[in-house]
User: What shape does this take?
Amino acid sequence: MAAGETIILGIETSCDETAAALVRRNAQGKGTLLSNVVLSQIKDHAPYGGVVPEIAARIHITHLDRLVAQSVKDAGLTFDNLSAVAATAGPGLLGGLLVGLTQGKAIAMAKNIPFLAINHLEGHALTPRLLDECPFPYLLLLISGGHTQFQLVEGIGRYKRLGTTIDDALGEAFDKVAKLLGLGYPGGPRVEAYARRGDMKRFDFPRPLKGRPDCNFSFSGLKTAVRETVQDLGALREQDVADVCASFEHAVAETLADRLARVFGIFREIHPTVAVPALIVAGGVAANQSLRGVFERMSAKHGFKLHVPPFNLCTDNAAMIAWAGAERLALGLVDDVGFAARPRWPLDSVSAPVYGYGRLGTKV
Ligand code: KG4
Ligand code: ZN
Assistant: This one.
């Protein structure tokens, strides 16, 4: 290992992906992905139409050991080569978090190396820096099944939440619309496929919170409007399904465009001297091609540089956890093995109380 270089094992078990990965960080701060193993539990939860926490935790327990060993082997290394272990400590489902944290702590103790408890959202926020040079500050839009938020990323551990959902996450809204239409789980890709063949002007669904001066989101009213439309239609023809999907996706696209215009303005107010700031879009919903068109159009219009990580690093993975660990380790920000899981763990502890805790659940 070269001087100043570190090799970090990352573990991710906060939701329905069991994942392990190794990254290397050199003395100049450049990252290299050495291995990346992800076991998706989608098919195990599909019969229930969503993630069942107990089932997720059991699958994590069953497979994590093997996946961690696989990630070390894939990198062509042994546990003796590790500089530190990083595991997701929150936010997420408690049972799964405990599985990953316990495994990570055990390896760190057995090998007598530092342990890092990582905030899953920080993993998403720092991913672009594993792939490329991406100087602070930049803007993150995270849109997944569990999260919908804008974060201003100013440094390691320095985040400002500029907006969040006040009810459903965006991926969750896609999944619920798919469920209403009988399209199965996960719904996002299926809604997108139907939307391509549909008429986006047929149904005038609401644009939630449009024109409001903040950057928050709300999707439950939109979901209700879709449900009422579907009920009114009665027996659905293929074309009805396609038109509902297209109209829903169009309402989401216009909502995102409205929020983006606002958040870009806020970024400029806070950091007026950054010539071409980056907008990073992460989370499963970033795979949606028509929404990606909105990100491209809006970024170009407002002078931001769009960066969407490749799909496997955009959705949940352990490479981002390992990388967040590498960045923290470089700053000496190691954690105690007594670190407890945090099912709710806002990235930005300053903004969080504004909206209160109970109502927003783990989505914040
Ligand atoms: O980031 P992710 O893989 O997992 C977590 O939620 O943590 O995101 C999954 C979400 C699901 O809600 C899924 O329906 C949505 O991302 N999704 C999409 C698309 N592909 C996945 N939503 C819209 N369009 C897509 N093409
Ligand atoms: Zn995630």
Observations:
- The two ends are 39 Å apart (CA to CA).
- The chain has two domains: 6-132+312-330, 138-311+352-363.
- The longest helix spans residues 238-270.
